[in-house]
Amino acid sequence: MSRKVLVVDDEQEIVDFMERFLIRKGISVVKAGTGEFAVEICKKEMPDCVFLDIQMPGKDGISTLIELRQLSSSLKVIMITGKDDVDLKEKAAHAGALDYITKPLDLSDLHRKIQTYILNT
Amino acid sequence: MESSYRKGLERVARQMILIHRADIVIKLVLRTIVRDLKVRHAGIFIYDKKHDAYIVKMSRGNTGFKIPSGFVKIKKDNPIINYFTAKRFSFCGDFILLDNIEKLIRSPKVKKDIKAGEFLDDLQTNLDFYQARACVPGFFRKELVGVLFLGDKNNGDKFNTKDLGFLSTLASDVVMAIKNAWLFEDLSRQIEVNKRLFLQMISAFVSSIEAKDKYTRGHTERVMMYALSIAEQLKKRGELSNRNKFVDDLRVAALLHDIGKIGVPEHILNKPAALSEEERDIVREHPAIGDNILKGVDELEMVRLGVRFHHERCDGLGYPDGLHGEEIPLIASVIGLADAYDAMTSDRPYRKALSFDEAINEIKKNKGKQFDPKVVDAFLDYTQETNNKLR
Predict the structure, then answer these.
(1) What distances in angstroms separate CA B366 from CA B163, B335, B377, one per listed residue?
(2) Residue B114 burial (CB < 10 Å; 0-12/13-18/19+)?
(3) How distant is the Cα of A61 from the closest Cα of chain B, in angstroms?
(4) pLDDT value at position B62?
(5) How many angstroms from the chain centroid is the CA of residue B6?
(6) Nearest residue of chain A to residue B126 (CA atoms)
(7) What's residue B214's pLDDT?
(8) Do residues A65 and A52 make contact, with C-beta atoms less than 8 angstroms apart?
(9) What superfamily does domain A4-119 belong to in CATH?
(10) What is the mean pLDDT of residues A3-16?
(11) What residues does each domain of chain B span?
(12) Low-confidence residues in chain B, pLDDT < 50
């Protein structure tokens, strides 16, 4: 059965890149440009995993994370963070984020995390 | 085919002379590759000191995929980098071709060598991340500065020796452009550091004068602040040409305007009463002494004008040279007003400070007499703009 992943980032280019990367691994992808939209999508159909940008205008990554986890406490959320988002990373961990990937992304690292959290479960 | 390559290379070489910004050269090179080599996409990893890794700076292509600039990195121990730097295996050469890597993986020799096999598998996986068919390194001396990566050719052809030669040349061009840009950035940073050092040295120097003259403590800082604020207003009124240089000189001149007081005896500077005529004459020497101190510093020519003439008056009654009106350099008029305002609003042993309103009235009264009218107007603009915060 094909896995489904939601990618949430306010930068279109990044969402598109992640989509192509995931599709090539046989994963189906839904995309959201805002936290609000991400929550709407998850209300309709829960994905297997979410890649969630920690810094977004409007509803930020942490509030989005909290709402998503309220919808499903078992939802796997991997935050997309910047190198210097130390405090935010800690907050995300407290709010139930499973792991994070740091921008600029190391695709080997991303590949490993996709294997661990999405494909091998 | 060959002549189109040569044309492409010549075009890049010509542009390189005109363009000093690395990002523009990279864009040009990638565009040349995509167009002349007819590949689906091309991109470049460039070493980045801050991350100590190679970052995808740009990637472009008509079809195929595009990596957002700065979004992806490869670490120094990534096989794509290691292939060119560590060269742990005999097959590591001057370029990577996916076809060759796949052939190697199937070869009996590699099948026996577990380490080589692992390395090649890892390399293949990484090439696949970027859908890279070929990679070409760009070295500066022995340092790997960047790696070009290319997708499939549009017509499905393989890369040939000529293609790789063309790519190698372009990779060196990019590296050269990046090296130049880095050099330029380092230089600009160094200039900033020196400039800061210079100003801090001057400030330290000036505190030694202020230590001697206890009534003027903090005076220099305030005069500089007022002078720069006046310059800001003169700028708005369009009265400044070559303003960056003017402001730089003004900052230094304001800091140094009283440097000549080092030649005035301490008992006169610190006298707790009004000065005698004779003592006043001695104090009046300080602008010329200051000018003389700075005589040996070539770069401070304009600064010296500010130091020497900051006690001149429009009506010619100032000192040391009794200049009139327009003869007084603007830099000196600005410091003169800033200096006078601060003196008026500071306590002296023999008189109390004037209030803000009294000082402003005094300045208005002396517009065109002691003070340059356009400098007075700029100063009044400043006090109004700051909502009379000086009050």
Answers:
(1) 78, 16, 12
(2) exposed
(3) 18
(4) 62
(5) 37
(6) A108
(7) 67
(8) yes
(9) Response regulator (3.40.50.2300)
(10) 92
(11) 2-182, 194-385
(12) none
Yes or no: say if B380 and B341 are a contact pair by the CB < 8 Å rule: no
Quickly tell me which residue has 């097959």 as its tokens. B91
What is the spatial distance between Cα B247 and Cα B295, in angstroms, rounded to a whole number?
Answer: 21
Q: Is B67 on the interface with A (CB under 8 A)?
A: yes
- Is this complex's ipTM strictly greater than 0.90? no
**Residue A111 burial class via C-beta count within 10 angstroms: exposed 0-12, middle 13-18, buried 19 and up:** middle
Pairing of strands B96-97, B134-140: antiparallel
Tokens representing B213 are 């003259």
Residue B215's pLDDT is: 65
Number of other residues whose CB lies within 10 A of the CB of residue B149: 23
CA pair distance B62, B34, nearest whole angstrom: 8
Task: Check residue B257 and give its pLDDT.
Answer: 94
CATH assignment of B194-385, given 1.10.3210.10, 1.10.340.30, 3.40.50.880, 3.20.20.140? Answer: 1.10.3210.10
* Sequence letter at residue B257: H
Q: Is A103's Cβ below 8 Å from some Cβ in B?
A: yes
Distance of alpha carbon B389 from alpha carbon B384, whole angstroms: 8
CATH ID of B2-182, from 1.10.10.10, 3.90.180.10, 3.30.450.40, 3.40.50.2300: 3.30.450.40
Least confident of A38-42, A56-60, B5-9: B5-9
Q: What is the pLDDT of residue B157?
A: 92
Is A102 touching B (CB cutoff 8 A)? no
Residues 6 or more apart in contact with residue B243 via CB below 8 angstroms: B231, B235
Helix axes B243-256, B161-212, angle to 10 degrees: 30
Structure confidence by residue, pLDDT tens digits, B205-239: 888 777 777 666 788 889 999 999 999 999 999 88
Are the beta carbons of B66 and B60 closer than 8 angstroms? Answer: yes
How far apart CA A3 and CA A27 sit, in angstroms, is: 5
Chain B (328-387) residues lying within 8 Å, Cβ to Cβ, of chain A:
none
Q: Which amino acid is at B374?
A: K
What is the DSSP track for B247-304?
HHHHHHHHHHTTGGGGGS-HHHHT-SSPPPHHHHHHHTTHHHHHHHHGGG-GGGHHHH
Closest CA relative to residue A18, chosen from A119, A105, A85, A116? A105
- Chain A positions in Cβ-Cβ contact with residue B63 (cut-off 8 Å): none
User: Minimal CA–CA distance to B149: which of B28, B61, B62, B35?
Assistant: B61
Buried b / exposed e across B215-225, counting CB within 10 Å, b at 16+? ebeebbbbbbe
